[in-house]
Specification:
Strands 1, 3, 4, 5, 6, 7, 8, 9, 10, 11 and 12 form an 11-stranded mixed β-sheet that branches. This protein has a 4-stranded antiparallel β-sheet with strand order 14-18-19-20, with no helix packed on it. A 4-stranded antiparallel β-sheet has the order 23-26-27-28, covered by helices on one side. It has 2 helices and 34 strands. The chain is mainly beta.
Length: 429
């Protein structure tokens, strides 16, 4: 093929050379020190569209480009493929598939975007290689009309992970965290409080070990628009999402991402794992019999308003199991339920998470309403001798004034009786 001059670069996504899933200044082609890119879509001086497989060509370079073609059908004669007006082409990746005869067929996948921002739509165009029988090399790539496919942003980001290319130009490979919707603190020590002792160790980029606040299950928003569950509690905005579970909604056969409310005053407090449910699945290898598996679910807690007038709602998400009892996709919305603050605090106690951010876990004592002193010595007087032994610092016990039965108000608003007389304001019940 004669060399032709490049008149424009239509697509050329940056390439993650060092495999750290980020696009940085170190992602360069070694021989040229130029920014590393995947295959480029180029316009040639005769108006045709071709492929620069090196990812290094520039405008006005002469290259032996393999051109793209289109055909109305498999049997129709191909013509030059044209870029659509108003479309942006994000990049190409090389792949292959098995045809109906069991032969491996090489193809290219071209990712197209129409529009921008949240309203952008995406498509993929598959171009099959036309192989020269003598050289065994592709002389063109042809797409058949009507074979393009709609992609979601999540699928585009999945193609990033597959190819190591940054199609959406956010300097990340794959889906990443764009915001934190809920990050409850976690009671690591189990003392019913959130304190400076509730910390976890992490490996820092410089190779040393640091500590950060222990968080419970985080609810995070991803670049793809999905809402993910971060069980580690460690992800921050800008971090790669990895293999996060995302929340989904099934409507008939259609599956979509769950979308949080954008109404004023609505916030999300966290997610509490529920006890697993034992489910009987028909045994495909032994008709008439079943086998048991655990189905996991969790309750996402939503709050509307604040203070004493706040209301709460729980969103139940559960695994959808296939015929082998294996979860398919992300947890699906199974229903919603109204909740009270008492319900929320009960979930705190069961999960060790501080959903209402009062640095206490569970329905703790908010205030002491009545606290009569107790005559421990029996001399009918209340004196400095009327004390009881309580745990102190380290192994040394301490003392406190002896008290009778106390009346206390709890965080939930309920009134309770403290038979031991040891409760204090803002302490675990």
């Amino acid at each position: 093929m004669p060399a032709q001059k490049i008149t424009a670069i239509l697509a050329g996504a940056r390439l993650d050379i060092d495999g750290d899933l980020k696009i940085t200044a170190s992602d360069l082609f070694e021989e040229t020190a130029a920014a590393a890119r995947g295959m480029q879509l180029v316009r040639l001086d005769d108006g045709s569209i071709g492929i620069d497989f090196s990812g290094q060509a520039k405008v006005n370079d002469d290259i032996d480009a393999v051109k793209l073609r289109s055909a109305a059908s498999v049997d129709a004669a191909p013509t030059a493929w044209s870029a659509a007006s108003g479309s942006t082409y994000l990049g190409l990746l090389q792949a292959g598939h098995m045809d109906g005869d069991g032969n491996y067929v090489e193809h290219l996948k071209l990712v197209e975007r129409v529009g921008s921002g949240a309203s952008a739509t995406y498509r993929s165009h598959v171009f099959v290689a036309d192989i020269d029988p003598e050289s065994g090399l592709p002389v063109a790539f042809t797409t058949i009309a009507g074979t393009s496919e709609t992609l979601t942003l999540a699928e585009v980001l999945s193609l990033e992970s597959l190819s190591g290319q940054d199609f959406n130009a956010d300097n990340q490979i794959g889906d990443s965290v764009t915001g934190i919707l809920a990050t409850p603190r976690f009671d690591l020590t189990g003392d019913g409080r959130i304190t400076a002792d509730d910390m976890v160790e992490i490996d820092k980029p410089d190779g040393t070990v640091g500590t950060v606040a222990a968080n419970g299950i985080q609810l995070v928003r991803l670049t793809s628009g999905a809402i993910g569950i971060d069980d580690s509690g460690l992800l921050a905005t800008g971090d790669l999402s990895g293999e996060l579970t995302t929340l989904q909604v099934r409507t008939g056969e259609a599956i979509s991402n769950w979308t949080p409310s954008t109404a004023a005053g609505v916030s999300y407090l966290g997610v509490a794992d529920l006890p697993p449910e034992i489910v009987a699945i028909p045994d495909p290898s032994n008709p008439g019999n079943t086998f048991e598996v655990e189905r996991h679910s969790g309750l996402l807690i939503e709050r509307t308003g604040s203070g004493a007038t706040a209301t709460y709602r729980g969103y139940l998400f559960g695994d959808e199991l296939n015929e082998f009892g294996i979860p398919v996709g992300g947890p699906k919305l199974a229903g919603t339920q109204a909740m009270t603050l008492t319900d929320v605090l009960r979930l705190e106690s069961g999960s060790g998470q501080d959903f209402n951010a009062d640095n206490l876990v569970g329905d703790a004592v908010r205030s002491v309403l009545a606290s009569p002193r107790l005559d421990v010595t029996g001399d009918s007087k209340i004196s400095a001798a009327d004390v009881v032994t309580v745990p102190g610092a380290g192994s040394t016990p301490g003392t406190m004034a002896a008290k009778g039965i106390q009346l206390v108000r709890l965080v939930s608003g309920a009134t309770a009786v403290d038979l031991e007389g040891r409760a204090a304001a803002d302490t675990p019940a």
